[in-house]
Write a structure and sequence with these properties.
By secondary structure, the protein is α/β, with parallel strands linked by helices. The chain has 20 helices and 18 strands. Bound molecules: flavin-adenine dinucleotide (FAD).
Length: 546
């Protein structure tokens, strides 16, 4: 796009950020710190988007949607001073605990040697291979972190900056060494089922590892490109093969509160209950927003933290976007497949496979509890979604954050816990009926599935909250209920995210920037799209601010 010129200095704000998701807040905080007069407008009653904490019963607070924040870029935490704004992170020793139907379990620890030791009971071969696999994942993850923190090159008119960025990445690529550099090119397009099968023979281990390649996607473990999703999940967080499990004390909403404080402390303003119904344009350039109340607010530029499909197909005059671009934007794929179930529990559920004594059991339940006993199990769960049906036996990722953060249940009856369950696959596009009529099925399905591994869990449930893909769209503004604003498939990766030719945070409309998960490097609570977008917006600053 051409950067906006001739900006009126009478606009009350230099930048309006549409949507106070964590990425929108990250961008706003960087802009405010650079002296930009920034206003964030959010349609919901509070900030954070999917990074939200909600009370599901008196004195029982749950991660409303997302539950872990281990992918958050350390540079975002450091540069925005988030710890000074109250952010406190907890990282238990256990990363994932995967109970199996035969009563055994696989546990992935932060310490790869401890994981390998535990695998001996399953397979000597897998125990021997684990350290090497973990090392490869860490190595590629470090490289991908550099890619993710870079702006994709300008494909129309590459400049010196693109050449320098290319050189930097080239150096990092060579730094991978011969083996890992060959590996990264070979494995990224692979199906995660094939990638994990190259190293391990135990289906239960393959299953728990593979979940990170399909989570939040409309893909199964045999889908091409799921290894890219898996490795991107490891990018920059040193999670290795086990992935990260990190909680924000107070739930993900506490991260959002810290980000909001970073914005306002730096001089930015935030307005909630302020839905943008139009991004206004003059002569094809974004000049502000109109709120649902009818209020018009002018600004030099507009930054969208909401998903790009929604922004380009519903918030801007179609004449400005143009029919070709509008068609392309309408084809950004957002096939949501995820539901969320939160449970208030009267006591800690008992997973017999977690160990005999209480300490052992609790230690294993502090991380992600993963129900994905094998590759075929996950693929079958995915099959149902392809035909518009919820999985009969879904893949679940549950956490019990109150085990590591009792503040979530402070004031509740002693012994109370909160369980947060990510359920996949629940297709947004249901073949029969609507989620509004079938929402309860999701809660029943989650409980029934977990009961296989934690008998009696259902009797502990004192309250539950369920979000279907339709609820995620309606309540959280996710088009198609998609957690990542756009499917993280190979056709929506790097240069192609969200659209080829517009992967550099500058939208097809002059003066309108994109900063949410629909941009490179995609979804998850990373803050990376927001951080990258801020850098590019500030690079254009001389051309939009007078
Ligand atoms: C069930 C589920 C579980 C997940 N679990 C995890 C997890 O454990 N860990 C993890 O890292 N990631 C997880 N994710 C993914 C992750 O949460 C998201 O990718 C990420 O939080 C998106 O952040 P964002 O800032 O880009 O967008 P969002 O959080 O979607 O923010 C966009 C904001 O824009 C606002 N908005 C939209 N339209 C308008 C408008 N017209 N006017 C004003 N405001 C508007 C929305 O209300 C919203 O606040 C999960 C996602 C889901 C759905």
């Amino acid at each position: 796009m051409t950067a906006p010129t001739g900006v009126s200095s009478t606009a009350p704000y230099d930048a309006i950020v549409v949507g106070a998701g964590h990425n929108g807040l990250v961008t706003a905080a960087y802009l405010a710190r650079a002296g930009v007069r920034v206003l964030v407008v959010e349609r919901r009653e509070r900030v954070g988007g999917i990074a939200d904490t909600v009370e599901i019963a008196p004195n029982v607070r749950a991660p409303a949607v997302a539950h872990t924040v281990g992918r958050l870029r350390p540079s975002v935490v450091r540069e925005l001073g988030l710890r000074g704004h109250g952010l406190s992170l907890v990282a238990p020793d256990v990363r994932a605990f995967a109970p199996q139907p035969d009563g055994r379990a696989i546990t992935l620890w932060a310490d790869a040697a401890a994981t390998a030791e535990g695998l001996r009971g399953w397979s000597g071969h897998d125990a021997e291979r684990y350290a090497e696999f973990d090392g490869l994942v860490r190595s590629i993850g470090r490289f991908l972190a550099e890619v993710n923190a870079s702006t994709p090159p300008d494909v129309k008119s590459p400049g010196v900056g693109d050449a320098l960025a290319g050189l930097r990445l080239g150096r990092r690529f060579r730094g991978l060494g011969k083996h890992d550099s060959h590996a990264v090119l070979r494995v990224l397009p692979m199906a995660i089922a094939d990638f994990v099968a190259e190293s391990f023979e135990t289906d239960a281990l393959r299953g728990v590892l593979a979940t990170r390649g399909i989570q939040n996607t409309a893909m199964g473990p045999w889908s091409a490109g799921t290894t890219n999703v898996f490795l991107t999940d490891s990018a920059g967080n040193d999670g290795g093969a086990a992935g990260q499990t990190v909680y924000a004390r107070g739930g993900p909403g506490a991260l959002s509160a810290a980000l909001a404080a970073a914005v306002t402390t730096a001089g930015g303003e935030i307005r909630t209950d302020a839905e943008v119904v139009e991004i206004r344009t003059v002569d094809g350039r974004a000049v502000g927003v109109t709120l649902a109340s009818g209020e018009e607010i002018a600004s030099s530029i507009v930054v969208a933290g909401a998903d790009p499909k929604r922004v380009l197909t519903t918030l801007i005059d179609p004449v400005v976007v143009g029919p070709g671009m509008r068609w392309r934007a309408a084809n950004i794929r957002t096939p949501g497949t995820v539901a969320k179930v939160n449970l208030a529990l009267s006591a800690l559920p008992r997973f017999p496979s977690a160990g005999r004594n209480v300490a052992d059991r609790e230690a294993r339940l502090r991380g992600r509890i993963v129900v994905a006993p094998g590759i075929d199990y996950i693929e079958r769960a995915f099959d149902a979604a392809k035909y518009g049906r919820p999985s009969e036996h879904p893949y679940l990722e549950a956490t019990i954050p109150s085990l590591v953060d009792p503040s979530l249940v402070a004031g509740a009856r002693a012994g109370t816990h909160v369980m947060s369950i990510h359920l996949q696959y629940a297709p947004y596009a249901l073949r029969d009926g609507s989620w509004d009529d079938r929402r309860d099925e999701l809660g029943d399905l989650a409980i029934k599935t977990l009961e296989t591994y934690a008998p009696g869990l259902g009797s502990l449930v004192t309250a539950r909250q369920i979000l279907s893909p339709t609820d995620l769209e309606r309540d959280y503004g996710l088009t198609g209920g998609h957690p990542y604003h756009a499917e993280p498939s190979l056709d929506s990766f790097f240069l192609w995210r969200p659209l080829f030719g517009h992967a550099r945070y500058r939208s097809p409309v002059d003066g309108l920037y994109l900063a949410g998960s629909g941009t490179h490097p995609g979804g998850g609570i990373t803050g990376q799209p927001g951080q990258n977008a801020a850098r590019e917006i500030l690079a254009d600053r001389k051309r939009w601010k007078r």
